[in-house]
Design brief:
single chain; mainly alpha; 0% strand; endosome; membrane
C-alpha cells in the first residue's frame, strides 16, 4: 500500500485507530502543525520570488533570456504561493470549525452534568411541601408588615379627642 493511500485510509496512530478516529485535540494539533509547515513554505516562496525578481533586474536588457527565465520561475512560485494561501484558508476554517464543535460538545456535557446535579438536588423536594412553606413565609411576612406598620404609626398619647 502506498504512503498516500495509507494516509487517506487511516494510517494514523494506533491510539486513534482503536477509538475510531482521532480526538479533537489530536486533530487540532495536526492542523496547527500543517498550518506552521505551510507558513514556512510561504516564507520560503516569498524569498524565492524576491530572489528571482532581483535576478531578472540584474540581467535586465543585457541577458534577456536569463531575465525571462527568472520571471517565469517567479511566476511559478507566485502560483504555488496562491495555492498555499488557499490551502491555508481552508485549514484555518476547518480548525476553527473543529474548535467550535469541541467547545459546543464540552458545553453540552457540562449542561448535562448541571442538569443531573439539579435533578439530584430536587430529588428530595415535594411540590406540596414547597407550597406550604411559601404560604407560611407569606403569612409571616404579612405578620411582620403588620407589626412594622403598628410600630411606625405615630403614637398620639392623648392628642386625639373623642367627641
Amino acid at each position: 500500500m502506498s504512503k498516500i493511500s495509507k494516509f487517506f485510509k487511516g494510517g494514523g496512530s494506533a491510539a486513534s485507530k482503536g477509538r475510531g478516529g482521532p480526538s479533537p485535540q489530536e486533530a487540532l494539533a495536526r492542523l496547527r502543525e500543517t498550518e506552521e509547515m505551510l507558513s514556512k513554505k510561504q516564507e520560503y516562496l516569498e524569498t524565492r520570488i524576491e530572489r528571482e525578481l532581483a535576478v531578472a533586474r540584474q540581467h535586465g536588457t543585457k541577458n534577456k533570456r536569463a531575465a525571462l527565465q527568472a520571471l517565469k520561475r517567479k511566476k511559478r512560485y507566485e502560483k504555488q504561493l496562491n495555492q498555499i494561501d488557499g490551502t491555508l484558508s481552508t485549514i484555518e476554517f476547518q480548525r476553527e470549525a473543529l474548535e467550535n464543535s469541541h467547545t459546543n460538545t464540552e458545553v453540552l456535557k457540562n449542561m448535562g452534568y448541571a442538569a443531573q446535579a439539579m435533578k439530584k438536588v430536587h430529588e428530595n423536594m415535594d411540590l406540596n411541601k414547597i407550597d406550604d412553606l411559601m404560604q407560611d413565609i407569606t403569612e409571616q411576612q404579612d405578620v411582620a408588615q403588620e407589626i412594622s406598620d403598628a410600630i411606625s404609626n405615630r403614637a398620639t398619647f392623648g392628642d386625639e379627642f373623642d367627641e
